Amino acid sequence: MDLNSFFKNLKMKTPTVNIQGGRAENRQQINLPNSQPFITTERERAAGNIGLNFEAPSTVQGQPTVFGVDASGQYMLGQTNFPEELQAYGFPQSQKFGQGLTIDQLSAYLGLPISENVDLNVNARINPYYVDPVDGQMLGKDKFIGANLEYKF
After folding, report:
1. For the chain, how many helices (H) and strands (E)?
2. What CA–CA distance (Å, rounded) separates 67 from 113?
3. Does the N terminus or the C terminus of the chain have fewer Cβ atoms within 10 A?
4. What is the residue-wise DSSP string for 13-38?
């Protein structure tokens, strides 16, 4: 099969999109000697993933080659606003937090039929902002590439 024929027979499956998020505002009352002002924290947050999956003809009759890509990430920005009563004690007017949009993981897969009974499956992923789950420290990139042969009885 030539490259032109390959692209003509390439089929995109339904994309997967899963995004959830929201906006929150919290108020916390502070007890000072002469007043009880509120600290207000506002936060906007969203997280999810988007995936594209494809199917293409293969050299093995009736068994397509499948491959796809997926990206997951999150968005978070927030701000804490301090009342004038606390600013008199040296607090700032407000303090921003969050990283905005971050890409948590990029992944790809390939399922390639080799014969009627054997498939080659290849998976790869990279986590650009890998954080150690134990102590929360940024460890740099986490990379993985794996492959397996699947035999069907």
Report:
1. 2, 7
2. 12
3. C
4. PPPEEEEEEEEEEEEEE---SS---E
